[in-house]
Write a structure and sequence with these properties.
The protein is an alpha+beta fold. The protein has nine helices and four strands; from the N terminus they run E-H-E-H-H-H-H-H-H-H-E-E-H.
């Protein structure tokens, strides 16, 4: 049997990626599969404008998105507090790659998402990122060098390949070459995994 192409792209600054994390774990358990968890850095100003330059339509969309995410989170006992700025998630995305290479990806994802959405974790701050790596069981000793070189190159490659495959947002599931975008499409991903 051929190896399946199973990927999920996330960005820690997306509340919808956070809310899709545990259901994605459930899909893995249900079908006995494992997704490749990959970072995809959203360029929020490209589609929602900068904080300084957003028009009223963009502000309505932002306000609704966070209200919607909070409602979904509250149903599951999770906390989603809107970020106080547009974050660059490149560093934490590189840390995700670093944690994965050290067998600590899942714990890292859990801690990074939860702490960020409680406003307890600055994903741009190197010491904070190293702290989450350490708490997840990934020794951060080599992280600074990785982030400055190989990790930054790897992140750029992953994002470029994602875009070439058609990825434009998160969470995005890629199942045997077919794209499913958004946590509300999990039922479609489940059907694809089930062969329906």
């Amino acid at each position: 049997m051929a190896t399946r192409d199973l990927r999920i792209y996330i960005d820690f600054k997306s509340p919808y990626a956070y809310l899709a994390k545990d259901p994605a774990y459930e899909l893995e358990r249900e079908f006995g599969v494992q997704f490749r968890w990959l970072p995809y850095v959203l360029q929020i100003p490209d589609f929602l404008g900068t904080v300084e330059d957003r028009n009223e339509h963009q502000w309505r969309r932002v306000r609704y998105s966070y209200m919607d995410a909070r409602r979904l989170a509250n149903r599951r006992g999770l906390t989603v507090r809107g970020p106080q700025k547009i974050f660059d998630s490149s560093l934490v995305s590189i840390a995700m790659i670093y944690a994965d290479r050290r067998g600590a990806l899942r714990k890292f994802n859990d801690l990074a998402f939860e702490r960020f959405w409680k406003r307890e974790f600055d994903i741009e701050e190197p010491n904070a990122v190293r702290g989450v790596l350490a708490d997840s069981g990934a020794d951060p000793a080599a992280f600074a060098d990785f982030a400055a070189g190989e990790g930054r190159e790897e992140l750029a490659r992953i994002c470029r390949e994602a875009e070439e495959a058609g990825v434009f947002g998160v969470p995005t599931f890629v199942i045997d070459g077919e794209i499913f975008w958004g946590g509300d499409r999990l039922w479609m991903a489940r059907e694809k995994l089930a062969g329906r």
